[in-house]
Design a protein that fits this description.
The complex is a heterodimer of chains A (about 375) and B (about 120).
Chain A (H helix, E strand, L loop, with lengths): L14 E8 L4 E10 L16 E9 L10 H22 L10 E7 L3 H18 L3 E5 H13 L5 E5 L4 E7 L2 E7 L5 H12 L7 H10 L14 E2 L2 E2 L2 H16 L19 H27 L3 E5 L6 H13 L4 E4 L2 H4 L3 H13 L28
Chain B lengths: L5 E4 L4 E4 L20 H5 L28 H28 L4 H12 L5
Antiparallel strand pairs in B: 1-2
The chains are: A alpha/beta (about 375), B mainly alpha (about 120).
Amino acid sequence: MVNLNGIPPRGKRNYYLAIGLEGSANKLGVGIIKHPVLEKHEDSDLSYECDVEILANIRDTYVTPPGEGFLPRDTARHHRNWVVRIIRKALTEAKIDDPTKIDVICFTRGPGMGAPLHCVVIAARTLSLMWDIPLVGVNHCVGHIEMGREITGAKNPVVLYVSGGNTQVIAYSEKRYRIFGETLDIAIGNCLDRFARTLKIPNAPSPGYNIEQLAKQCKNKEKLVVLPYTVKGMDLSMSGILQYIDTLAKDLFKKNLKNKLLFDSRTGEQLVTVEDLCYSLQENLFAMLVEITERAMAHVNSNQVLIVGGVGCNVRLQEMMAQMCKDRSNGQVHATDDRFCIDNGVMIAQAGLLEYRTGHFVKDLSETIVTQKFRTDEVYIAWRE
Amino acid sequence: MSLPHATYTGPKSTHEFEVDPSDPRYQTTEGRTTGASDYVLKQGHQDVDKPSDPKKVDNVNSKTGIDQYTTLSQLRMQLTGLQDDINEYLTEKINHVKKPRNSKQEQEINDLLDGSEET
């Protein structure tokens, strides 16, 4: 039996307030949410129907010049120098004059980059001590899943979690989000971002988005550039694909006429453009994702897919997944837009508040130590049957 | 208002870090060691992530005629300088470890790498 109303809201109110702080990679997000106290939550598995009200969802991204990734030290500096300003902005937007009214402060405990995680948890601890509010440490992946479930209303979907640092196919079973398949090396977003660096295209708003726009401009969609297709059972590998397409791009820029895939050996005519490479890379990678997702759906006998994570807002991925689901009986794809797909504070608040409402929160500051490695299936999901 | 201070303690040395509010290094929120990394700046990065400037109180001090910073801004400036002091001290220690100048230093490095200083 799950009781989401186990801990009453502060001040005998009829709603909960939570603030979420996210900073596991180059996005710094602060979100404030409100959950009404609903009778149906006293004895039910309705954690995807919290009637959440988003009071503020502020995000600031650390952007580097074209061709460059984000270094931990500089990303941490960005978070350190912006966190107070972003929290103030979120409180103003949420019209919260007295922050001590907030029920719980939620922060990302991991997985992610060490230095940025540290900066954000220090802010969370300070607020907790200053306002005397309990803390909840949230697994970043679980944050994505819970936000996706709440926004889309997907009850028990197979989750495809695709971002710059993670690629996992997940399904819920017996109080855990179990990982059915995952990347064996780099994440899909990392693969796309690093290819964007090779192409030296801008990192704003995000490198993956710019690849998607280039892919849309491909004029040769019926003829894909053949790339390695590396599905290994339920897992996938993307580092080899990246290496291969990087070499093709470099040959293209150097005009290496010896490369017969790119140039006609007799006339020297260019056969492939940068747009073609972007399109083929996307098609190849997304086809791999669709394959393992479909297999996971068959395993758990589910007809719902929920796509979360930054790469999840790629429209082409959503289209391909929808096509697969259409071919299966009554399949549905659930996805969210960039407000919730891309890392944000609201998702941390959502997962953290669910945990808080079931009576789990930090009892001692030693429990707030952040960790770079924190697998999705390590979290006990107390708020689901 | 008492001034912030820090102490480094190791098995072989200790170091005290004190703040001198009259020294210009404790009168800014832009630290020398807490800026964007040189590598990123060389790649043409426009630094838009600087810390905010210290805030002045609304009223100018009637006795001195000099602007006063808010208590919190004073603390931020002092901590920035203190952080610089700590970073420089630790960097110096690391450089010392990186470049042995004689056999005695080399021995020290080996001891450090063995983790013997920690025991």
